[in-house]
Amino acid sequence: MQSFGPTIPFVEHLGFTLHKMEGGESELRYEAAPEHMNTFAMTHGGALMTLLDVAMAVAGRSLESENFGCVTIEMKTSFMQPSRGPLVAKGLVLHRTRTMAYTEGRVFDASGRLCCHATGTFKYMPRAPKPGAGGETAIVTD
User: Which domain holds residue 132?
Assistant: First the structure.
């Protein structure tokens, strides 16, 4: 298991784990806790969208130095079938420019069935020290 780099409290809360982050690709794993389910006992769509968003951003970040992060510009998600049990999310950079990453993400269930798919556009943003924060980082906009 790898580290996401800078702490992402919401990702820690959901319990995502990072298993690959290299060459424009990522792999995350997640099993929804009871409080992350919807009324049909399936993983909530918001949790799945977060999983896809992080998988795509991590794939984008794998092509840049640690001095940069990715922020989501847009994202489109399609839900194909119920997402239950242990899930695997895979992110892939389809195209990259100096400032943008165009990506896709997929979530598979334990049987390898595709549950949901997303495309997303991410902007690379430089990280700069927070004033008086003793070396912590923050996203700084132009």
Answer: 9-139
